[in-house]
Design goal:
496 residues
Length: 496
Amino acid sequence: MPEKFKDASPDEIDKAMQVAARASEEFKKFSLEQRAGFMKAIAGNLENAGEQLISMAMKETHLPQARLQSEKMRTVFQLNNYAEACAKGDWMQVSMDTADQNRTPPKPDIRKMMVPLGPVVVFGSSNFPFAYSTAGGDTACAFAAGCPVIVKAHPAHAGTSQMVAELIMEAVQTCNMPGGIFTHIHGAGIETGKQLVLHPHTKAVGFTGSFAGGKQLFDWGNQRKVPIPVFSEMGSVNPVFLLPGKLKNSAAEVAAMYATSITLGVGQFCTNPGLIIGIGGEELDKFIAALGQKIKEVAPAVMLHPGIASAFNKNKERALGQKGVHVAAVSDVQAKENEGWPTIAFTSAQVFLANPLLHEEVFGPYSLVIKCNSNEELLDVTKALQGQLTATVMASVEDIHAHRSLIEAIKNICGRLLYNGVPTGVEVCLSMQHGGPFPATTDSRFTSVGADGIKRFARPLAFQGWPNELLPDELKDENPLKIWRTINSKITPPGL
């Protein structure tokens, strides 16, 4: 790591956390509109950032200019979208049950809202230098909730992270935010992350990355004297289920669709479809042949950094080396150093069920097709799968009606269930669920994409028996913030 990006010392980390804790007490008093204005200022700075930012990201990640520009604008959209959600206040889930002195026993006045947790540590991801990193979704959600943020830059794009951090600091000054509301830390070593998670002033953690990294942070968070929530998104094999009716009528179409999805961004998406499961036979063989032909036409490309390329090659070769696994197709163009070589393999359900290694994610342009002998075996494979971010059903309407038990089993393992689509591409909207049962994430009740993600960094607090004038504005009778609330079990618009 260059000298200017040296690892933060233990004293520097402690100082940053101390400052963040003091800023937390001040920031939580800021109005929803002030928080939203701050987030929109960050969005504006990022949107207006010069070509130097994109050039730096291209140099560090090997991602193409168009992809990075698109991701930057997605990040701008996230900041603005979450800012609007912050100001609207729905995420606070305000509820009020007014007193009834005529009831026996008398009913007290109780009012509840969400309040900030405190300083949040965010770990930047390797595969999204903008959208899941320094000014990404976790940072935006934490600011919306009223929490200071301490970002640990990902060492693979430390320069990009530093440039974005400077844009955030500009917004801090422009909007007169507390000085410790944002801190940017570099650290390639494991000790940096460990100290950040274990520091007593850290109240929550956001992470996007590998299972090993996310699970370690989760374990540290739960081993503390005072445990804290660690929201780790750790990847997924995102199984695709090819049902007979769809396969019979659309094999070539589905193959073309999935060749693109598997190799999009050199397969470096947490929603990359790594398993394709169907009933063996002529139709599935036709699909594999069509998919293989499309894969042969996709040229290898440089992966994000040498570490990811090395891990891809190691994990792919380990999977292909398992007994009963066969290569269906590879790209016709030989991969060079640090490039991902698009590869499709296939095996039987029996082999898959007997070998847990084949259930693991191979992060890159690789997918494994599983041939089942029957609907019962298809169901067995489904029940053997671990938690996933997504699962996709490629099916006709008749297929769905004929496979009700299978569909119910698939629901049990995923956070987002797709019908006749591809899992790559995560829409930023309130209905998006980007989180699934462990080991996809550490808490499947929450999402890291969409404004509902704000709730991760807040907790409920109820006020009982307080005079109206002493209550927070969110809970006052006159509703000065003009937000939606639930009053005596009835959802009530701002005017009431």
